[in-house]
Amino acid sequence: MNYVNVTITILDIAYLTFLMFIYFSKKNMPNIENKIYKVILVLSLFVTVSDLVFWSSCFYLKDTPYIVEIMQKIYLTFLLFWEVYLIYYIVLVTNPNSKLVKNYLGINGRISIYPNIVALILSAIQFFLPLGFEKGNDGVLLYADGPIYGFIVMVTLGLAVIAFLSVFIGRHNITVKKTTPLIVFTIYESIIFYIFIQNHTICAWSLSCTLTSYLMFHTIENPDLKLINELELAKTSAEKANNAKSDFLASMSHELRTPLNAIMGLTQLIEKNDNVDQIHEDTKDIMLASENLLELVDGILDINKLETNKMELVEGNYNPIEVFDDLVRMIKVIIGERPLELRTKFSNNLPLELYGDKDKVKRIITNFLTNAVKYTDKGYIDFIVDCYNEKERCNLVISIKDTGRGIRDDQKQVLFTKFNRREEDKDTDIEGTGLGLALTKSLVEMMEGKIEVESTYGEGSTFTVKITQKIIRGPVEFKHEESSVGVESRTINQEEVLREKVINTNVGSEKVKLLVVDDNKLNLRVASKLLSALNFDVSTVNSGIECINKINNGETYNLIFMDIMMPEMDGIETMKKLKEMGFSSPIVALTADAMEGSREKYLSAGFDDYLSKPIDQMTISETLEKFLKLKVISQEDADNRRNNYIEPDDNTSSSKDVEIL
Are the CB atoms for 432 and 255 separated by under 8 Å? Predict the structure, then answer.
């Protein structure tokens, strides 16, 4: 009997048993690394026990070599499983963010089936390879030999190479403590192979399993050390989170107070001012400050939705020309009296109707346009929309070019990170939280689009967005004239005239009747004025009970806007009672609850649609158009359309059917 190998193996078994008792008696972190290490420990014990059984069979069963051969192949099977699982552990630890690990080796914190498949294939191969034995003078089997050992050596060397490459590739992801046992294993395996090749009677593979398990326990997988490391990481993360929270609150305090200061200050001036023209000017500034405030809040909510994977595409049909025209009007207001020229150029190939998430398309372009205005003191801003239509797909290429301050090269790398602002120490006159571009990048990626940035510091920047939308209705040719401000002029053909047909807000011979339910008198006043300006017959009540009473008294309404948080009877309960009474007109939730999942929550509760406060005429108009099949426009817009309308050249009678308010 090879007493050296037997003695080493017995010591291995004793130590591994002791190590497993300590490890399994302590509480471990429930992660995939621990799960794999537990398997490695158990396999290490199986390897050493089967190795001892093999050497014992060599002495006691020397006359039945076929049993000895089976014992040896069982031992080698456990050894192959151990080596495969060790390499599995190494790859997982050193490259946790690789696609291989994420997609195949570490799915949802569970041990993958692929290492078992690899180990089974290798074990099956070695079972069919011949095994030879060398006997001593007394007839006792000294060691096993043959092609099977050549196969084992080649497999182990190959796995060692994989381990070395994995450590090298992922060297930036691991600490010294994690690297040490992995490197020692690679070196130690090489030494063992060299010794085994020189003298087959010395076989220390079982010792290799024990030594590696020992090193891993005292450097990587020790429960006490791991708990301390986890606590240190938790402490560091908490400190970083606390610092980030403080920085965020400081930034938000400044950004929120800026528009609030304008709103409160101008409101006080209006209260004491009798000059109508001045009041109108102050009101416009209040509106701009309010929109800035709302943009800040929406940006925070949208970032939260993206980080919690709650942001979804809400797709539908929309008119891209209308969207771009609205954006031009919006930016014109923001530019105001500044020495800044807005130049537009829209492709003649733009389809009449696309399918996609209109609101997110608007948000993306709005963020780039408002940024251009913020960082451009004088010169021009080019708003260019090109498109390449392929069958049912429209490839939009939207470029925003400015002659502003530009971006430094070192800033380009962090341009789309949260809370980052260009030269924050210098641009003290620029408002914003640094959320806009981070949100924009995420939205573009959601739509499987791309963003390209070209900038020369001190000269200007160009942001280009490429997104693809589905074509619902093909393009109609129109004559485009570039415009420095406002909406470009164009000659519309007969099909577009019919598409842009404006119907007044009467249904039959009666005005559309709307009911607004809200317990806040100021909210009722705002909603009533916004809807009355669109020529609707508007009624208001300040409770759900009053709403129920009106319907019971025979009042009829084409649509109800319903607040949610109301005393006695909330909006959801009121809506359900109305439907139980047989009320069939649309009921739209109108609430300040704008957190993630709010829309889905209220739609699933039974509301026909959801609007978040604060509301504006455009949003309300879109909702009314959706449910009442009307084209809602203000009197001012109607006058503008009438003034800009050019009669088509053909003499068809269709244009006579168009009614302009």
Answer: yes
Residues 6 or more apart from 391 whose CB is under 8 A from it? 471
Q: How far apart are CA 430 and CA 409, in angstroms?
A: 20
Report the candidate in 400, 343, 409, 412 with the shortest Cα–Cα distance to residue 374.
400
| Paired sense of beta strands 450-456 and 340-346, if any | unpaired
pTM higher than 0.85, yes or no?
Answer: no
User: CA 405, CA 455: separation in Å to the nearest integer?
Assistant: 9
Are the CB atoms for 325 and 618 separated by under 8 Å? Answer: no
Q: Which two tokens stand for residue 387?
A: 């498109």
Nearby residues of 440 by Cβ (< 8 Å), 6 or more positions away: 363, 364, 367, 368, 416, 451
| Phi-psi region at 607: left, alpha or beta (left = phi > 0; alpha = psi -120 to 50) | beta
Contact by Cβ (8 Å): 378, 340:
yes
Q: In this structure, is the dihedral angle defined by the CA atoms of residues 629, 632, 638 and 641, taken in order, positive or negative? A: negative
Pinpoint the alpha helices (H) of 533-660: 544-552, 571-580, 598-605, 617-628, 635-644
What count of other Cβ atoms lies within 10 Å of the Cβ of residue 228? 11
Q: Nearest 5°: phi and psi at 462?
A: -135, 120
pLDDT tens, residue by residue, 37-52: 888 888 888 988 888 8
Q: 269 — alpha (psi -120 to 50), left (phi > 0) or beta?
A: alpha
CB 222 within 8 A of CB 24: no
Residues 6+ apart with CB under 8 A from 325: 487
Residue 395: band (very low, low, confident or very high) from pLDDT cuts 50, 70, 90 = very high
Separation CA 172–CA 179 (nearest Å): 10
Which residues lie below 8 Å from residue 414, measured CB to CB, with a gap of 6+? Answer: 420
Q: Cβ atoms within 10 A of the Cβ of 586, count?
A: 18
Q: How confident is the model at residue 661 (pLDDT cuts 50, 70, 90)?
A: very low
Q: How far is CA 660 from CA 637, 641, 642, 655, in A?
A: 10, 8, 7, 11
Distance (Å, whole) CA 579 – CA 245: 45
Rg (CA), the chain: 37
pLDDT > 90 in the chain, percent: 17
Q: Is there a contact between 159 and 87 (Cβ–Cβ < 8 Å)?
A: yes
The residue written with tokens 């649609």 in the block is 609
